Amino acid sequence: MISALTHSVRLLRANYVFAREGVFSDLDPTLLPFPARVGLRLARLIERPSKASHAGRLAAALTKLGPTYVKLGQFLATRPDVVGATVAHELESLQDRMPPFPQAEAIATIERAFDRPLKDVFTSFGPAVAAASIAQVHRAQVQTDEGLKQVAVKVLRPGIERRFRIDQDAFAFAARKAESFSAEAQRLRLVETAATMRRSVALEMDLRLEAAALSEMAENTKDDPDFRVPAVDWDRTAKDVLTLEWIDGTHLSNRAALEAKGYDLKQLARAVIQSFLRHALRDGFFHADMHPGNLFVDRDGRIVAVDFGIMGRLGAKERRFLAEILYGFITRNYRRTAEVHFEAGYVPAHHSVDDFAQAIRAIGEPIHKRSADEISMAKLLMLLFEVTGLFDMRTRPELLLLQKTMVVVEGVARSLDPKLDMWTTADPVVREWIERHLGPVGRVAGAVEGTAEVGRFMGQVPGLLSRGAVLIEQLDAATRNGIVLSPETVANIGRAEARRNRWTAVALWVIAALLVYIVWLIK
């Protein structure tokens, strides 16, 4: 009861901030039930005047509510199935920029993480150069065999885990209440969405996991000519501290600086698109926050990505799905594109492949009547997911994250080369994957892998038979003798039953007293 009251107070405060910033101003009251319409009128009484757009008002409200709400906004930007495409697009503009916490607290965190003075960890340690909702970054130096080396040190915000836990408990409470009252909330799976966000943030708060993501991507991309990631300093990395190679490059968003340094902007645009597709298709592991602030160009002209807190993964089935639908649209093979959806199990088998192919053609044909620079792969995927909804395709969170990231990547590439031909740029990467995995070589490799899988299964058969025999014996004993409970289990059941009976008796006495009181009033 106390926790429910606490959550309600926190949520009321959040609603007050939303109302004050005018977040509810664009809602259509005719679509709301009567109590909500009354609440909307009250909210508009405290709304302060603002010339900002709806996206600006929403971003301002989330920023005022603190780090958890900023992260909530960023998370919901990846779930247009929950908040709608319009709101998701608005939330993409939300910048995760927070005031830095004091230098002394960052030093205390580092000394606690490594159990030694700061001077024994870093030769020098400067003020924060960037601050976000979960951590902030400092520039520092370390002593190596080659001399002093510049590093970037990411330090977790003190107390941030407790702050997020409290706010996320309130989110979960709101999601449960919404699902208990609304069938639409159940359809949108708000409880599952809140749980997914909790898991995502928990991973972000262990900086060792971000270091592991960096290490994995470094291995995946070690032979890529136009992309790399910073090296991790594992000796100076802990749960609350991450130390990386300092990237002394040019922000990809600084077009003027890139031109002044003589970089080929068209080549950089192609590299951004092709790198992302390689990571998604070849590796099944991609950077899911590739906005311009996280991308640099180093002295060798290679793209360097930073901030690996949000990563996306695609399994073999999802990668094949992505490659084949892109290839199907490139070659205008709509029938094959439709078949892939059925083979992946995304569209239920009771639907017609021909009808689905016709719906896909309605998306693909307009593309081939446009100039190359007008075609958006991200928009294509968005339209495709809208059409698949008509054919009962369930939401695929990993594909939504892919589509959201592709929107950002396309935006970055178009800012460098507005006339970029997305399909010509994507074709070699997609075609290479198709030939390697679905061509003759891929079929041979698949057959070898299938043989190995059969061998592994045959090796497990004796163990499976042994465990099956034990299970049959246990079922036979339970049938003949009944289920035998341990004394501790019996005692625990007895105590639980006693508590239940005691509270039942209390409830009955309360009801009896109320009845007596009512009879007395009638007299």
TrEMBL record:
Q: Which Pfam families match?
A: ABC1
Q: Which domain of life is it from?
A: Bacteria
Report domain Protein kinase positions: 123-523
Record field: transmembrane:
503-522
What are the UniProt keywords, alphabetically? Answer: ATP-binding, Cell inner membrane, Cell membrane, Kinase, Membrane, Nucleotide-binding, Transferase, Transmembrane, Transmembrane helix, Ubiquinone biosynthesis
Q: Name one GO molecular function term.
A: ATP binding
Checking InterPro entries in the record gives:
ABC1_dom (IPR004147), Kinase-like_dom_sf (IPR011009), Prot_kinase_dom (IPR000719), UbiB (IPR010232), UbiB_bact (IPR045308), UbiB_kinase (IPR050154)
Listed pathway(s): Cofactor biosynthesis; ubiquinone biosynthesis [regulation]
Q: Which PROSITE patterns match?
A: PROTEIN_KINASE_DOM
Q: Name one GO biological process term.
A: ubiquinone biosynthetic process
Similarity comment text for this entry? Belongs to the protein kinase superfamily. ADCK protein kinase family.
Q: What is this protein called?
A: 2-polyprenylphenol 6-hydroxylase
Source species: Pseudorhodoplanes sinuspersici
